[in-house]
Amino acid sequence: MWDFLQFEFMRNAILAGVLVSIACGIIGSLIVVNRIVFISGGIAHAAYGGIGLAFFLGFSPYLGAAFFALAVSMVMGIVSSNRKHRSDTIVSVLWAVGMALGIVFVDMTPGYNVDLMSFLFGSILTVPANDILFMVPLDLFILITVSAFYKEFTAISYDEEFAFVVGIPVKLFYFFLMGMTAIAVVMTIRVVGLILVIALVSIPPYIAEKYTRSLGEMMLVSCFLGVLFTLVGLWLSYRYDLTSGATIILVSGAAFFISHGLGMIRKAGS
Amino acid sequence: MNPPAIEMKDVSFAYEGKTVLEDVTFRLGQGDFLGIIGPNGSGKTTLLKLMIGLLKPDKGTVKVLGETPRDAKRRIGYVPQNVGINISFPISVFDIALMGRLSRSRIGRWFSRKDRSQVEELLKDVGMWKYAQTPIGKLSGGQRQRVFIARALATSPEILFLDEPTANVDPEFETDLFEFLKDLNKTVTIVIITHDIGVLSSHVKSIACVNRNLIFHEGGKVTPEMIKMAYPCPVDLIAHGMPHRVLSIHEER
Predict the structure, then answer these.
(1) A47-69 pLDDT per residue, tens
(2) Nearest Cα to B206, choosing from B36, B67, B77, B79?
(3) Per-residue pLDDT tens for A194-227?
(4) Residue of chain B whose Cα is closest to the Cα of A218
(5) How many CB atoms lie within 10 A of CB B113?
(6) Global pTM?
(7) Which domains does chain A have, with CATH numbers?
(8) Contacts A213 to B, Cβ<8 Å
C-alpha cells in the first residue's frame, strides 16, 4: 500500500493536498458560516478567464487565475454587500462570463491546445515542487491573518450588524475575506479543478460544524477532514487509475452523506 | 450641562423610494427610559437603526450623546430583534457575550483576562453563567435573549437599545426583563421597542409612538391619539395587555 510513496510526483501530490486542505479548512469554514459558498464557486469558475488570458499572453496560468480571481472576488464583494437581493444573479453572470472569456482566449491562442481537463478537474499528480513552494507562504498568510483577526472574523460571521455597531469595519473585513477566498480557490483549482472547488471548500466545514463548538475548532477539524479526504481520494486514484480530482470529491461526498445520515439517526433517536 | 441622550431633528428616511419615517423630531434626556410603540411596519426598527448608525437619514440630523451616531458607537449597546439568526453557528454563550468587548481600537488584539471576568459578571447578572459553555443553538428564545443583553452590556454602554426583546419569549421572561431594565436604568439610558403597551406603561418613563411620524410623550403615558395611530383596531390592544390600565389614561392629563 505504501509503495506509491516512492514516486516524487506522489510525494508532491500529498504535500499539495495537505497544504490546500489547510487553506480550504480555514477559509472554507468562513465561507460556510458566512453563506458565500455560491460566491466561492463563482470565483472558481470565473478564474478560468484568467487562465485563458494567461495562455493568450503567454504567462503562468495560475498567476492568471489568481489575478482574475482576485479581481472577480472584489467585484462580487461589492455586489453582494450593496445589492443583496440580486447578488446571486450577478454572481452567476460573472461565473459564466469568466469561463466563456477563458475559452475564447484559449481559442485565440495560436497552435497550442490547452489541456482543459486538468483545469476543470485538477491535476494534483502533476504539481511541480515549485508550486508547493508557492503554497507554503499562502497558507502561512491565511493562517496568520485569520488568527490575528479571529475575534473580528467570528463576530462578523456570526452577527454582522452587531459587529458594525461596536465599530468593527465590517466591509473591510468582508473584502479581506473575499480576497482570501480567491487565494484559497486558486490553490484548490490545482488539486481538484475549478468545477470541484465548491465541494472541497464546503464539505469538510459542513461536516465539522456539527461536531464543534467554536469557529476555531471548526477550522481545525475541517483541515483534518480535508487532508483525510484528499489522501484517501489520492490513494483510490492511484490504486484504480481514476481521475484524482473526482475521487477526492467522491470520498468527501461519501463522508458528507454518512455524516448527514448519522445526524438524522441521532435526531430521530433523541 | 449633559447633552441629550438622543436628539433627532427633521429626520426622514425612505427605503427603496418608500417613505418610512417623515420629519421626526424629538429629544430624549440622559437617564430616561423610552418605550417605542407602533404597528408592524411603522418604522420602529428603522428609527432605532438610525439612532445607532446602522442607517443614515435621508434628511435631518441624528445626535447621540451630543455626537454623531458613528462617533457615539463605543458608548452604546444594542440588542437586535432577531436573535434566532445563525443558531447552527458553532459558538458558545460565553464567546457571544465576549463580542461585546470588541472595539475598533482593539482590532487584532486578543481578549484580555479583564474582558473575560467582566463578561463572567454580566452573564451572572442575567442568570446565564451556568450555560457559559453551551452552544447558542441549544438555548430557548428567552435564554438567548438574556445572552444578547449580556453582550450588549459588555460594551459598558451609556445607552442601551433593545429591539423587541420580548417577541417570541415566555411571559415570565418579560416580567424579569423589565425588572432587570428598571434596575439598570439607574445608571443607563434605555430605549426599547415593544408591542406590549401594558407592561410598557407601568415601567417606562417616556413613550414614543411611531407610524411614519412620531409622537413623543414624556411621563410614560399612552395618549388616545397614540393608540389610534399605533393600533387601528382596539381589540388587538386589549388582547395584548391590561385593558384597564390603557383605559385609565384615556383622558390626557
Answers:
(1) 999 999 999 998 888 899 999 99
(2) B36
(3) 988 999 999 999 999 999 999 999 999 999 999 9
(4) B90
(5) 7
(6) 0.87
(7) 3-260 (1.10.3470.10)
(8) 90-92, 133, 135
